[in-house]
Specification:
There is one protein chain. It is built from 20 helices and 17 strands. By secondary structure, the chain is α/β, with parallel strands linked by helices. The protein folds into 2 domains: 209 residues, Aspartate Aminotransferase, domain 1, CATH 3.90.1150; 259 residues, Aspartate Aminotransferase, domain 2 (3-Layer(aba) Sandwich). It has a 4-stranded parallel sheet. The C terminus is likely disordered. The chain binds pyridoxal-5'-phosphate (PLP). Pyridoxal-5'-phosphate binds next to helix 6.
Length: 496
């Protein structure tokens, strides 16, 4: 690939002319050279921020210093080392609430292992019952889709709202019609992502209040939204907000959170209790236990306490930069990427890239799903493109990103077709599913995804476009010769 510095400088100058707001995000170039210097030291082109954010080196140093100096015990006690830890855990908790502008008389922050853990807490305890409804959207992550198992087991009606091509947004009129359909006294849960982890679409936040006014509770999956957007809980009042912190600031993994409205928590029915979630129980009578109120009733066992101070450190880091600065940078770089990707053409005149989702920056974030086509319009097997990207040290994502609904829409897989994939006693691996889906439409159901974030710079996106340019005029058969390491997934594990 030709990364000639001269050509890149010219492209940068043109980019800066077209995106003057980029200038206001220069602090991120300084941080790239210091806090994130390891990217350039290793020539890594990291384009998977929706999969996981990157940490600044100072986050690690601060956290390690704290651990090296402190003596911390399990926060469930009243001894000095336990109290020292409790203090830091509660500081982290209130920092999280402050960061999201969540009034502390209205919201609680429940620490969980990740966003999926937060979603499971909602799924297993929401009072689904006959007469009630669960209304997910096609664009949900599998960890939201899984809630339907709890809903249908308890007799609630499950209805999916499809996303609509080409922009992969939801049909507002159809949603409104569904929202109007509830029974008095029933419990109803609408669940949608603030930002799609597939297409980057930002779904309207004003549905939250509209749904609540019609007797719905609202779960706003903010895992893919929060890393590059401010979620202001004084303005928007979803009942449940699941998050993973590593997606926002990279370190640590293993900690997420459920921001929950106290009023919504009151109606939850936990299916079990654990250490830490009750005031007392007895082994001599079934059902004898008192669940603690608010977050304490939902944090099973010992929280990941040594890592919780790192949440405050990470959020401070984002606050110091300014989420608006990160948002601006991501907006500029994504806008440029979309322009470049949509203008790439083979000599045959056919486009080299197909974007799945909005091709401009209207109501979308920094995640782009796409496929690469050959000069005859043959969609390339994503495994070849991925193998070539790996050689160029480009970290991108492939597969369905744990968002099968939007994948089914973009690859035109109907319900009848999908039904055939689920009648096999032995199940199917993702690769088998890919080959099977290809046979349905005689076309590779390939999707790749790039996503930009706080440490992305112009050189990253420029190099990625140069990588795509290398496919110009290359027939499928030529690319077919690329050696691919086929990964055998037992399930749709290409998550995140
Ligand atoms: C929108 C969305 N929701 C939920 C999740 C699940 O997050 P985790 O795997 O951290 O539990 C992800 C992961 O990528 C996501 O993108």
């Amino acid at each position: 690939m030709d990364y000639s510095p001269h050509k890149m400088d010219q492209a940068l100058a043109a980019f800066e002319r077209d995106y003057p707001a980029y200038e206001s995000t220069k602090i991120l170039d300084d941080l790239r050279a210091t806090e994130y210097a390891r990217l350039d030291k290793q020539n890594q082109i990291y384009l998977d921020y929706t999969g996981g954010g990157l940490y600044a080196q100072s986050q690690l140093r601060q956290h390690m210093a704290l651990l090296e100096e402190g003596v911390f015990g399990n926060p469930h006690s009243k001894n000095p080392t336990s109290l020292a830890m409790t203090h830091l855990v509660e500081r982290a908790r209130s920092f999280v609430l402050d960061y999201f502008n969540a009034p502390s008389d209205e919201y609680v922050a429940i620490f969980t292992p990740n966003a999926s853990g937060a979603l499971k807490l909602v799924g297993e305890a929401y009072p689904f019952a006959p007469g009630g409804r669960f209304l997910p959207v096609y664009d949900n992550h599998n960890s939201v889709n899984g809630i339907r198992e709890f809903a249908s087991a308890k007799g609630a009606e499950v209805t999916y709202m499809p996303t609509v091509l080409p922009e992969l947004r939801l049909d507002a009129a159809a949603l409104e019609a569904e929202l109007n359909r509830t029974q008095p006294g029933s419990h109803n849960l609408l669940a949608y992502p603030a930002q799609s982890n597939f297409s980057g679409v930002q779904h309207p936040l004003d549905w939250i209040a509209k749904a609540q006014a019609r007797n719905w509770d609202v779960l706003l999956d903010s895992a893919a939204f929060a890393p590059t957007n401010q979620l202001d809980l004084t303005v928007w009042k979803p009942d449940f907000v699941p998050l993973s912190f590593y997606k926002i600031f990279g370190y640590p993994t293993g900690v997420g959170c459920l921001l929950a409205r106290k009023t919504a928590l009151k109606k939850m029915q936990r299916p079990w209790f654990a250490g830490g979630t009750i005031s007392i129980t007895s082994v001599q009578g079934e059902g004898w236990h008192y669940l603690l109120e608010n977050e304490a009733g939902f944090e099973d066992g010992t929280v990941n306490y040594l890592n919780l101070p790192a949440i405050e450190i990470g959020l401070r880091h984002i606050k110091d930069i300014g989420i608006d600065v990160i948002h601006e940078r991501v907006t500029c770089l994504t806008g440029w990427l979309l322009e470049q990707m949509t203008s790439l053409k083979h000599s045959s005149g056919l486009p080299m890239v197909q974007i799945f989702g909005p091709a401009n920056m209207q109501d979308r974030g920094g995640t782009i799903a796409f496929s690469v086509d050959d000069p005859q319009g043959v969609r390339l097997d994503y495994r070849w493109v991925e193998a070539l990207a790996n050689r160029a040290n480009i970290s991108l994502r492939t597969g369905c990103f744990c968002n099968p609904g939007t994948g089914e829409i973009v690859h035109l897989l109907t319900r009848e077709e999908m039904a055939q994939a689920f009648n096999r006693p032995t199940g199917m691996t993702f690769d088998q599913f890919f080959d099977w889906a290809r046979s349905k439409h005689d076309r590779n159901p390939s999707t790749m995804r790039i996503s930009v974030g706080l440490a992305t710079n112009f050189a990253d996106v420029y190099k990625f476009i140069s990588f795509l340019e290398s496919f110009k005029d290359k027939p499928e058969a030529e690319i077919d010769e690329v050696e691919v390491e086929y990964t055998v997934y037992a399930t749709q594990r290409d998550s995140a």
